[in-house]
Amino acid sequence: MKLTKYSKKLKFTYLFGTWVTLLLGVLLFGEYVTFEEAKENRFHIFVNATEVGTVNDPQEAKEWVQTARKEIARKSPELVFLEVEFSYTGEAIDFGEVDEEEVVKANIKNVLEASVLETLQRSYTVKVNEYMTNLSTEAEVKQLLEAAIGKYDTYGRYGIALEQDPKREFNMLQAKVVDSGQVQATIAQKQEQDPFVKAGIGEQMDIMFAEYEPERELDFEDYELGIQQMNFKEEIEIVEVYLPEYQIQSVENAVQELVEEQEQQVIYEVQSGDTLSEIAIKVNIPMDDIIAMNASLENERSVLQIGQELIITVPEPELSVVRQEVNYYEEIYNADIIYIDVDDWYTYQTEVVQQPSAGFRRVVVNETFENKELINREILKEKVEMEAVPKIVKRGTIVPPTYIKPLSGGRSSSGFGPRKAPTKGASTYHKGQDWATPVGTPIYASSGGTVAKAGWGSGYGYVVYINHTDGRQTRYAHLSKVLVKAGQTVKQGEKIALSGNTGISSGPHLHFEMLIGGKQVNPLKYLE
Predict the structure, then answer these.
(1) What is the pLDDT of residues 71-104, one digit of tens each?
(2) Fewer CB near the terminus (10 Å): N or C of the chain?
(3) Where are the domains of the chain?
(4) Could you tell me which of 124, 144, 369 has the C-alpha nearest to residue 257?
C-alpha cells in the first residue's frame, strides 16, 4: 500500500514539474520554438548571398523580399532595377531561436537598397526629322516647343498642349499649338450659365436677324490683327520612355539644337537670267562657297542652265513654324505686268511698250509665313490712294529651237575668247569652242535647220554651216569628211560629218561656232 501511494505522488510531482517548466519557457522565452526530430526546422535566409536572418518558414521570407522590392520602387518615380537572388539553407535542431520578423525585414531592405543596379528615369524622347533629344519632364518638352513658337509669338498668345495620341498603341504624345487665352473657356462658361444659349436659342436668333441685316463690308479697324493661327511644319513624335540619367539632355541644349537657326542644305533652281554672282547676292552666300558645294561648277565662269539645281546652305531651324498673320500696311506697290503676245516672235524676243510707275495704297493682308519667310500673301481689304501704272511688254510665243553638244565626249581644249595662238596662222581671239577628239568622231547637228555650206572653208578646213529657224547659225570646222550638202534639211542630232584635223589646226579636234545676227557668241551659253 505505501509503495503504491508514494509512486502515485512521485508521478504527479514529475508531471506537475514538467508542466511548470514548459509554462515558464513559453513566458520567458517566447521566440524559442521546439522542433520535431530529424526535420529541417530552422532556415538561414540569404538575399544576394548575404544572410539576412533565420526563420522557420522560408516561403514567408520570400514574400518579405518581394514586398521590400516593391516598396523601394514605389518611393521613386524612377524605374528601379534590383538584383535579387533569394536562397536559404535549413537545419534540424531540437530547440533553438529564430530572428524577429522586423529584424529580418529590415535586413532584407538594406541588402536590396545596396543592390540597386541602375536607375532609369521617366523621360520623353522628342523626334523631329532626323533630330532626336531626350528630356526629363513634360514641362521641359513644352518649354522646348514653346521656345520655337515664342520667336514669333511676341505677345505670348499661344502655348503647347500635349495630348495622348489615340492612334498609337504605346505611350506617345502629340503636340498642338493652342490659343492660351481664355476665349474658349469663356464661351463654354456662357453656355453653361445662359440657358437660352445652352439650348441653342441664341444661335437661332442670330441666324434669324442675319436674314434681315445684310452683311456690311469690314472697315480697316474691324479686322483683328496679329497671329491668327500657328502650327509646326514637321511631324513631332513624343514618346514616354525610361532612360539612364546620362542620356537625358538639358532643355537649354535642346532649344539651341532644335529651335536656333542652323546651316541647312537646300536646292536652288536656276532661273532665266541667273548668273553665279547674282545667285550669290540673292542667297547671301559667297560665290566661292557655292562653287565648292557643287561638283557641277568648275569656276565662276561655269555655264548655268535654266532649271539646273544647285546646292546652297541657308540658316534654318530644325523645327519650322508655319503661321498666319493678319496685318495692316501703308505701302508703295507695283501693278502686275501686262503682256501682249506676238505670235510671230520667239519667246526670247520682247519689247517694252509702257514703263511702269509705282502707286500707294492701304491694305489689310492675310500673310502666311514659314519661319521668317513669307510664302503666301492675300489682300483682304485695299484702298488705293494713288493708282500704279503697269508695265506693258510685248513678248513672243514661238518656242525657239534648242541646241545640244555636237559630239559625244571630247575634251574641252580651247574656250571662247582671248587666247595665245596655238599654231601659226591661228587667231588670238577664239570665236568658238574646241573639243579635242580622235579623227573620225561622228559630228551631229546641234539643232535642226538647213545646210548653208558644206565643203572646204580655207583656214577652217572642211566645214558645215547650218541656218536655224530662230535666225542663228552654227558652224562645224576642221572636219575630215562632210556627210551633207548645201540646201539639205537636217534634224537635231542627225550625223552631218566626221571630225578631223584639216585647215589651220594644231591637232585632231572639232571647232564649233554659233552666230547670232551674224556675230559669233559663246556657244556654251546656249547648249542644253
Answers:
(1) 887 777 666 777 789 999 999 887 778 999 999 9
(2) N
(3) 32-114, 123-255, 262-316, 321-398, 411-526
(4) 144
